[in-house]
């Protein structure tokens, strides 16, 4: 399974659209781009793999692996990127502003269900992060 995350960058945070095979899954929110700095930046655009992860805080969730110079980058519920994220990606049902969304738990449950079905079949789940703007067009 290949998930495509298409971002739009804003100074206050990133808004995204997550799709699989051309079908919309949910929107996403992230921290703004700050040169991949730990805990204050979204992750770089690129190709990653997703695996299951468990923690006491988030229970069963999703981890994005092999992010350069970063660890514990997760998909987990959050509605405000600046207040609730440290570099992770939050699925949201509806976008309400740059880095802001609504009904994150509902969107996360939908995403987790889709991804876990594939992982339970021992198949890989790939995440491709891209943007509507290319290269130097991006706001930094």
TrEMBL record:
InterPro entries: DUF5675. It comes from the Bacteria. This is DUF5675 domain-containing protein. Residues 5-115 form the DUF5675 domain. It comes from Flavobacterium nackdongense.
């Amino acid at each position: 399974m290949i998930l495509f995350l298409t971002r739009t960058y804003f100074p206050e945070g990133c808004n995204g659209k997550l799709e699989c095979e051309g079908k919309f899954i949910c929107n996403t929110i992230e921290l703004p781009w700050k040169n991949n700095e730990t805990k204050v930046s979204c992750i770089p655009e690129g190709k990653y793999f997703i695996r299951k992860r468990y923690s006491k805080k988030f229970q069963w969730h999703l981890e994005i692996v092999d992010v350069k110079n970063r660890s514990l980058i997760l998909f987990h519920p959050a509605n405000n990127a600046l207040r609730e994220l440290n570099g992770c990606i939050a699925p949201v049902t509806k976008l309400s502003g740059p880095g802001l969304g609504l009904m994150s738990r509902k969107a996360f449950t939908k995403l987790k269900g889709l991804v876990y079905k594939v992982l339970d079949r021992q198949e890989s789940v790939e995440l491709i992060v891209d943007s509507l703007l290319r290269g130097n067009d991006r706001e930094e």
